[in-house]
Amino acid sequence: MKLLILDAGHCLSLALAREANRRADTELTIEPGLVLEAGLLEAVQPDALVIPPLSRPISADPAAVTAHAEAVEACLVACREADIPLVWCVSDQLYEDGVDAPIDEHVIPEPRDDGLRRLVRVGDRIRTELPRHLIVRLGPLFALEGSHAWLGELIDTLVAGREVRAESDVILCPTSADAVAMALIGMLQQQQCGAEAWGSYHLAGTEPVSTYTFVSVMRTQLATRLEGRGETLALGGVKALSHHHDQPLRRVLNCRRVLEVFGVHQKPWRLELGRMLDTWCLARDDGKTAEESMPR
What we know:
Keywords: Oxidoreductase
Shape: globular
Strand order of the largest sheet: 2-1-3-4-5-10
Distance between the termini: 49 Å
Pfam family, one: RmlD_sub_bind
Oligomer: single chain
CATH topology of the domain at 2-140 and 177-205 and 253-267: Rossmann fold
Number of strands: 13
CATH superfamily of the domain at 2-140 and 177-205 and 253-267: NAD(P)-binding Rossmann-like Domain
Helix content: 40-55%
Protein name: dTDP-4-dehydrorhamnose reductase
CATH architecture of the domain at 2-140 and 177-205 and 253-267: 3-Layer(aba) Sandwich
Structural class: alpha/beta
EC number: 1.1.1.133
Radius of gyration: 20 Å
GO molecular function: dTDP-4-dehydrorhamnose reductase activity
């Protein structure tokens, strides 16, 4: 299977590259940005075009949201003309006001924000104009490296001794970029084998949690690992924010359909978080070893 991935520096693109390198059945072509060069689809002839999500579109610059929407629409037109499936990953923040119950795939977001509404219109076009598509709605992605790599940003902030502020009344499902990459490749492999299960899917981690709790657990696990290694670092603190005083805003995706159709089980975020922190510690060791071996 051959995939064309846009936005090479995105944390999901990097995760897809790592996953493809572990397999013998997947070949990737990765483009630096979101602009699809004329004739590229015809030259590469991928089995699908994959577009990583615009993370945190609620707080993104309006111009960035517009640019992302326009780039996806251009990809839609190119895929339609070349008859190539399109995979568009989307942030759960499109469900701006949240829903009390877990959100099913058939529930189309109806945000009030103009930028989010622009992204919803892109999804409407994809569903209308391109039958062979996957719209994959994701919880907040976390990874160690790449753009939008939430976890990497949090670690850097805490290690620098700076405070992290996080909402205690926003309930969501943190989602490992590595787990998403593994699931996407598995889903597309099944499509290659004739599944023909196109449409919208929710893909997020298990155990809904507040942003504040996620960050606090991450800080505790990081401190424990550093102490176990004999390191004493004054990590920054975590401050709880409360913006929804009446009741918590719940943005929890129901991922039952991706299990029923593709057999994809969601990975617990606590396990993925621990694995990534272990990886960060190993990389920290490697960095120290390299620094010590440099000539003085």
